[in-house]
Amino acid sequence: MNIFNKNSVYLTQTDTTIGFISQSPQKLSNIKQRPPHKHYIIALPSLEQLNSFTRVPQKHKNRVRRSQKTSFIFPNMHSYRVIKNSPHTHLLSKLGWAYTTSANLSGREYDEVFAKESADILVGFPQTKNNTASNIFKLGVKGIRRVR
């Protein structure tokens, strides 16, 4: 049986917090009760994968390559985070990429029961919750702006 299904929602310790990952934004939006027009961060296991999704502006290549626990909104208005040196990287390598979000209802605090009941597959479920969300920067052709 192949557990790596693009329609599954995984509950796992991400590089920043306990989160849901999936290749189905519709399923994530339904679980989180979030408007479907909002974009999710796309988590990738390597810079090579990032290059298959978007072009990194020349001015920001070193920043993106060296970043850790940081998401970037690119000029195409999509958000990406390359996950390096984390157990989460192994799962992403199997999937290729995935949308990622915190494991809670939109705008609410984390609830372990909700998270476990909402996911299709639990992956190495952590014992404690980490509250550290990723930093988010918006990259422009000329500059950069901190969003979170």
Structure, explained:
With 148 residues, this protein is α/β, with parallel strands linked by helices. It has a single domain, classed as DHBP synthase (Alpha-Beta Complex). 25% of the residues lie in helices and 25% in strands. It is built from five helices and nine strands, in the order E-E-H-E-H-H-E-E-H-E-H-E-E-E. Strands 7-1-2-6-3-5-4-8-9 form a nine-stranded mixed β-sheet. A hairpin with a 4-residue loop joins strand 8 and strand 9. The longest helix has 9 residues.
| CATH level 1 class label | Alpha Beta
The number of helical runs is: 5
- N-to-C terminal Cα separation, in Å? 40 Å
| Structural domains: how many | 1
Strand % is 25-35%
Keywords:
25% helix, 9-stranded mixed β-sheet, globular, alpha/beta, 25% strand, 148 residues, DHBP synthase
In short:
With 148 residues, this protein is of the alpha/beta class.
Draw up the topology in text.
Layout (H helix, E strand, L loop, with lengths): L9 E4 L4 E5 L2 H8 L8 E4 L2 H7 L7 H6 L3 E4 L5 E4 L4 H9 L2 E5 L9 H7 L2 E3 L11 E5 L4 E3 L2
Parallel strand pairs: 1-7, 3-5, 4-8
Antiparallel strand pairs: 1-2, 2-6, 3-6, 4-5, 8-9
